[in-house]
Design a protein that fits this description.
Elements lengths: L1 E5 L4 H11 L5 E6 L4 H10 L7 E5 L10 H7 L5 E4 L10 H22 L4 E4 L5
Parallel strand pairs: 1-2, 1-4, 2-3, 4-5
Length: about 130
């Protein structure tokens, strides 16, 4: 099984990654903003040898398509499950910012999953800090 995860650097994400990587042969692709590339390297190190099965996909949920066309080609037909954990809960953010990240971001992700084709299962996980 292969997995694609948004919000992997968050609180719930680290526990989910641990469980997914415990599955023999699982490859896990994580959506990471370019500005958080350093977090990805730390994340790989955290999981030791299993961290080699963790793959960074540079992108952002606020961008239609989420990832570059080249990265999308690498994923199409290879992903079995998508876990959407990326969201922001911040009482100080504007309504526009919240809508862009939480609402439009989720719409972009659903379109991404639909474009992947096949029998991809979408798991939407939401929490309030």
């Amino acid at each position: 099984m292969n997995y694609f995860v948004t919000g992997a650097t968050g609180f719930i994400g680290k526990f989910l990654l641990e469980r997914l990587l415990a599955r023999e042969g699982a490859e896990v692709y994580v959506l990471i903003r370019e500005s958080s590339a350093g977090k990805f390297k730390d994340m790989q190190a955290r999981y030791g040898a299993a961290g080699k099965r963790l793959h960074m996909m540079a992108g952002d949920i606020t961008t239609p398509g989420l990832v570059s066309a080249a990265d999308f080609k690498k994923l199409k037909g290879k992903v079995d499950h998508v876990f959407h954990l990326a969201a922001v809960y911040d009482m100080n953010m504007s309504d526009e910012q919240g809508d862009r990240i939480n609402n439009e971001g989720t719409r972009n992700l659903v379109a991404f999953v639909n474009d992947l084709g096949g029998n991809v299962r979408l798991h939407h996980v939401s929490s309030v800090a």
